[in-house]
Amino acid sequence: MCLAVPGRVLEITEDNMAVVDVGGVRRMVCLDLVTDVRVDDYVLVHVGFALQRIDQQEAARQAEQLQAMFAREPGGADGT
What we know:
Helices cover 21% and strands 39% of the residues. It is of the alpha+beta class. The chain has a single domain (5-72), classed as SH3 type barrels (Roll). A hairpin with a 2-residue loop joins β4 and β5. It is elongated.
């Protein structure tokens, strides 16, 4: 199973890389697979690559779903 997580683009470098905020953690992400990405856009990230640009509402919806999923896991966000 593949899992892509939403993140907000904070900075874009000259080598088509971006600093992306994913749940409060900053990651370097390659933008080679998407076009027209700008600072403050949201992208889906998988293994260091932005796969697609998404809007802020979709990013929030997916982040909420991920939090809910991990909260149900043993040892997840709810501490059980």
